[in-house]
Design brief:
With about 325 residues, this protein is of the alpha/beta class. It has 11 helices and 12 strands. The strands form 2 sheets. Strands 1, 2, 3, 4, 5, 8, 9, 10, 11 and 12 form a 10-stranded mixed beta sheet that branches. α8 links the parallel β10 and β11.
Length: about 325
């Protein structure tokens, strides 16, 4: 192999055009999914204090937001419901006239081309804030599964394009797949939160979704952060159960897991650039400590470089505008 001075690596960094020509991975707006928080009521567009630039929307305010996202060429949204009245088993999640079910119909009416992904989990709807049914102080895996299947069916019946179970119960992908297939929804893909870690980066989301556990934590069902081999087992199991797309969450602190998953599996791979990652960037940018645009695009680019095909990010809206400027 040639060495300096015959080899000069900087030749391929000389200009923007040359750097673009030899770039190994490319972030594109078509990779992005933008999360939306849907609340009950009317006329509501209220900023979430821990997530500057992210809002709670009532259903009647969705059309304008989705129209703007479509203009930016963002292809998909991920919906989370925020409700006032909750119970022990999260029954508002199953209501055909629930906030997410209504939001799906409103979005598909306003922007039929927009891909609508719905979060399948009970934590936003349970009075205790856990992701499943609590029995004797513990989240009971098997009694939660039928409720998740009913929730997924309700969303599919409302017009959701993809359902995304995030609960981390064992066997939920198989249960949801069977329920969809047995009710003429065999065309609906499952995007599984396959490797979802018990992360400290979820704090701002729990304010946004009102889903903070009222006791204990979620470490008995979400993954232990030091583990990567376990993540590969989880992903493999979900693929075997029928997941069409698998996800690693969070993204930025788990780039090694994304990379390992990309090496191990050929199916579409998503990563969730979560609320705490977003909030840290916004906080530092507000103090003038970082170049916000460059940092955001660098973070999203690193997630793409690690191997993610799809990136769920609260930065998607602003990133889409910046990518359009570069085109």
């Amino acid at each position: 192999m040639p060495l300096f001075p015959d080899l000069r690596m900087r030749r391929l960094r000389k200009s923007h055009a040359i750097r673009s020509l030899v770039r190994e991975s490319q972030l594109d707006v078509g990779d992005l999914i933008f999360p939306l928080f849907i609340v009950e009521g009317k006329g509501i567009k209220q900023e979430i204090s821990a997530m500057p630039g992210i809002f709670h929307f009532s259903i009647d305010r969705l059309a304008a937001e989705v129209d703007e996202l479509s203009r930016l060429r963002i292809p998909a949204v991920l919906l989370f419901g925020v409700v006032n009245n909750k119970d022990e088993i999260g029954s508002p999640a199953l209501d055909p006239e629930g906030v997410v079910q209504q939001a799906v119909r409103a979005i598909k009416k306003a922007a039929p081309q927009m891909i609508v992904v719905t979060d399948i989990c009970l934590c936003e709807y349970t009075s205790h804030g856990h992701c499943g049914v609590v029995v004797n102080g513990d989240v009971d895996n098997d009694s939660t599964l039928p409720l998740l299947a009913r929730m997924a069916l309700s969303h599919a019946s409302s017009g959701a394009d993809i359902v995304a179970p995030s609960d981390m119960m064992d066997g939920r992908v198989r249960t949801i797949r069977e329920a969809l297939d047995n009710n003429s929804f065999n065309h609906i893909p499952i995007l599984s939160y396959a490797a979802k870690y018990a992360s400290a980066f979820y704090g701002p989301f729990r304010e946004a979704a009102g889903s903070t556990p009222q006791f204990g934590d979620r470490r008995s069902y979400q993954m232990d952060p030091p583990n990567v081999r376990e993540a590969i087992r989880e992903i493999e199991e979900d693929i075997n159960e029928g997941a069409d797309i698998v996800m690693v969450k969070p993204a930025l602190a788990y780039l090694d897991v994304i990379s390992k998953a990309r090496e191990s599996f050929n199916c579409p791979l998503a990563a969730y650039n979560v609320s705490g990652e977003y909030a840290m960037v916004k906080a530092a940018a507000s103090r003038g400590w970082i170049d916000e645009k460059r940092v955001i695009l660098e973070i999203l680019g690193s997630i793409k470089r690690a191997g993610a095909d799809i990136i769920i990010s609260y930065h998607a809206r602003e990133a889409a505008a910046w990518l359009a400027e570069q085109a």
